[in-house]
Each structure stands twice: as C-alpha cells, then as structure tokens.
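Justification of resources, computational component.

The compute hours requested in this renewal are based largely on the per-chain cost of generating structure records like the one below. Each record pairs the submitted sequence with a full structure-token output. That output is archived, and it is also reused by downstream analysis tasks.
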Amino acid sequence: MKNARNSIIALALTALSAGSVFAADMTPKTRDQVRAELVEAQRNGTMIFDGETGATFREKFPTNYPMTGMQTPNTTRNTTVGMGQSPGTIKAN
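The structure output for this chain reads:
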C-alpha cells in the first residue's frame, strides 16, 4: 500500500514538472510578430486557399508566386547520374 502511494506521488510530481517545461516554451506572440507572419504567408502563398482540401494559394495559382530554391528542378542529380554513375552509387552526406 505504501509503495503504491509513493508511486502515485512520484508520477504526479513527474507530470507536474513535465507540464511546466512545456509551458515555458509557449510564450505569446506580439501583434507585430503575428502581422509579420501574415505578410510572409501572403507573400509566399502559404495561406490556406481551400479549407476542405487544405490547398494553399501557391498550389492553386503557381504563376503568381516565384519558385523557391527547394522547388527548382534538381539538374545536378540528373547530370551526375547521366555521367556514368549508376543509380544508387551516389553517396549521401
């Protein structure tokens, strides 16, 4: 009986300490930060266009938004494989 009570107390203390750790990271944003994020989302096209499908403005109107570095075609991979190396032999970092 004493062991069960000690375990319950230990679990409760652990839960309380874990909750306070997570709460420390949740600092509220200022209005200026929220406005800056909104402007950035509008500029990037990452705002949700269709709430049912979750499609963004960038997906619906791709010509309105310039391509970023991650969306450009990977020409280096194509030329490396085409230069005599068989697929699967290129080593990753």
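The beta strands are 48-50, 55-56. Residues 4 and 10 are 10 Å apart (CA to CA).
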